[in-house]
Amino acid sequence: MIRLYNTATRAKQLLAPINPDRVTMYVCGPTVYGRAHIGNFRPAVVFDVLQRLLRHHYGPDKVIYARNITDIDDKIMDKARAEGVSIDVITERYETLYLEDATTLGVERPDLHPHATTSIPAMVDMIALLIAKGHAYAAQGHVLFDVSSHGDYGSLSRRPLDEMIAGARVEVAPYKKNPADFVLWKPSAKDQAGWPSPWGRGRPGWHIECSAMIAESLGQTIDIHGGGIDLTFPHHENECAQSACAHDGAPLANIWMHNGFLNFGGGEKMSKSLGNVLSVGELIEAGWTGDELRLGLLSAHYRQPLTWDEALLGQMRGRLDKWLRKLGDVPKGVRPPPPPAVVEALADDLNTPAALAAIAGIEQDREVLLGALAFLGLPSLGAERSRNAADMRGGGEDPDAARINALVADRLAARKAKNWAESDRLRDALTAEGIVLEDGPGGTSWRRA
RNA sequence: GGCCCGAUGGCGGAGUGGUGACGUACCGGACUGCAAAUCCGUGAACCCGGGUUCGAUUCCCGGUCGGGCCUCCA
């Protein structure tokens, strides 16, 4: 039994897949016009955990998870023009970086990675269908969705149509029947990226891409649709409307899930204009590991806002180090199954803090701990830059290992001679350079703090 | 201006109509030559004001503060 909070109903509900042999989930992925920041990866990590939970529950091959790449967009075109290159130079560069960062965070590759530019025909078909059904109209090279044609418009985000128009902050264009109508297709100038269509050469609007790709690759109605909370309106509202209208009222998704935002200290939104955004790459260069970042993203419930700062990461480091000490050497290969307490916590609307609390209760059993951490995608043992078990014990590839080992041996000799002053001096010297010594029954080991 | 979400110990963070998880920090104990690591244990919180109730941190109303959306946005 998996219960998930549905934004459409503002309540938790039981997940009841349309077809338990083919559970479908779609998550809005990045628009690849620049390097994603850590906040952009919250949905990637959160829905990666959900994807693992679904596979555990329904079977590894019973889940189809799609996360799109938006590779045509005005911001991409702007960037390409600024650099004097074609858009695919831009999109390939940032898609590669996105996937690398996702891997660093332990995010498994989704089953499907639909790209907007390879789904243009599906979009054109859907737009034509919407026009034929009287839900869209062409005007001055544009095709617009007629929001007044859909009685449920605004139901997902709970925004009555008349209120939105009263707000009057929507773009008013002369070719729009209604200010809230949104673009399905827009014309491209000769020097802009474009594709042929019945309405002339142009490019798709943002919202139609997800609707078309979902219909094309997953079906008319999917089980779960996810994304950041900011996408609720207008993006998901519009997707919802388009798909329902194109499919004679069939809902696009049965459950809508939205993750909360990351904040920086002081409650400030992470924003490029404030200069406080950090990419995964920058955080790695700052010395944090992918596991620490992933655990940080999972430390709060996904719908809650999460303050992202060094204090949080420091706490995550401490927690991971403790687990790694308990795990010791972990061979690669098959992982133990996750403990029921962890699965149950996640089955209740992906309650990762409760899952972490459950781990605290079972961490004495190495196998159980390993199963729990593996299920959460932690730790990525052996992954590059990971603080793995070997590093923790002073083995690994530490360039100073030989020198440090020699000092440790000196100290051991001093201790044997009960020369406490000398042994403490050596330990203090190592402490000063960030080396922590641990005297155990099997001898002395060391690690970097 | 409209709509939505949140406010829990020093910090992070679940949850609940009736003894308030968990992590971390602090303190005490065991262990240690002393530490570290490990183990055991104590103490410590539900924004404010009303209301409903036998009883509210939990439900309702109002307020304050914070965040989000209404235009591209994870």
Would you kindly provide a written description of the structure presented here, covering whatever features stand out?
With 449 residues, the chain is an alpha/beta fold. The protein is built from 16 helices and 15 strands. Helix content is 42%, strand content 15%. α4 packs across α6. The protein binds one RNA strand of 74 nucleotides through α1, α5, α7, α10 and α12.
Structure, briefly:
The chain has 449 residues and is of the alpha/beta class. The chain is 42% helix and 15% strand.
Distance between the termini: 42 Å
In spatial order, strands of the major sheet run 4-3-9-10
- The whole-number mean of residue pLDDT values reads 88
Sketch the major β-sheet. Answer: 4 strands, parallel
Strand pairing plus helix content: what structural class? Answer: alpha/beta
**Strand count:** 15
Tally of DSSP helical segments: 16
What is the total domain count?
3
Helix content, binned percent: 40-55%
Query: Over all CA atoms, what is the radius of gyration?
Result: 26 Å
* CATH superfamily annotation of the largest domain: HUPs
CATH class of the largest domain: Alpha Beta
Show unreliable segments: 266-274, 382-395
Tell me the CATH topology of the largest domain.
Answer: Rossmann fold
